[in-house]
Amino acid sequence: MADEALFQFLHNEVIQYVYKSAENGEMENGRCVSKLEHLGFRVGQGLIERFTKDTSRFKDELDVMKFICKDYWTSVFKKQIDNLRTNHQGIYVLQDNKFRLLTQLSSGKQYLEHAPKYLAFACGLVRGGLSNLGVRSIVTAEVSVMPACKFQVMIQKA
Amino acid sequence: MADEALFQFLHNEVIQYVYKSAENGEMENGRCVSKLEHLGFRVGQGLIERFTKDTSRFKDELDVMKFICKDYWTSVFKKQIDNLRTNHQGIYVLQDNKFRLLTQLSSGKQYLEHAPKYLAFACGLVRGGLSNLGVRSIVTAEVSVMPACKFQVMIQKA
């Protein structure tokens, strides 16, 4: 529990820090989300390397994606992805009905506009994890009703 | 274990990020350590609030300091402080013979010059924790032989 709190507090402070840098004119505002995403990407690369140390080889892309939704998500966010859908043409939608980094925000519409800040790092975590498993992707997220959210993964073919 | 890795990887990336901002001229180099320390301060404030939720009142300053060395340190860094010394005039020295955030660096002298980066956040954690327990302080750290380090806490009387 301590480590979970440690991560969550640090994650919150990093968000504040990145956005504050933007306010102070040290960085353009639009770059904040991509900075956070990049931090997540690097962390995801590290994590997946550790988590897959003893797993057997993945069969295919869908197999990788299932690993992300189950093992990876559970390790990082304490629960599985609730729903995984795909169009079988390289687009996957991962739905989390109670996303851990949003549960600390009040639900309702009041803070809906701030949700993207709290999802950017997680998008990076997914992209970084996939990347180290050999799957290049673009990951975006959207929230309609807090604390549920959807991550959309678009596979980038080589 | 996953959360511990998550924190450590994020902590590393935050260090890289802050120092990279300095390189790009978005910030003066000297401010990096104090930025990291400030992040730690804020996280420490949050953590101590959570950790002391159910503890009884502290008797005095030394009692607070023992709590930091035992319970707080164990929660965050997985082990107690190995040695606590004080001059009974407001200076405390906390020695950790195997500091968790340094064990990932190679021991020996090769990376000694990089050690301060990896201690700034921890200094802030201590200062923030103490601050929320009503003890104002200045916290510095030094490394002589990796991965051992000493944190010096100077109490600031009101």
TrEMBL record, chains A, B:
Its main location: endoplasmic reticulum. Coiled coil: none annotated. GO terms for biological process: endoplasmic reticulum to Golgi vesicle-mediated transport; nervous system development. It comes from the Eukaryota. InterPro entries: NO_sig/Golgi_transp_ligand-bd, TRAPP_component, TRAPPC6/Trs33. One of its GO terms (cellular component) is trans-Golgi network. This is Trafficking protein particle complex subunit 6B. It comes from Denticeps clupeoides.
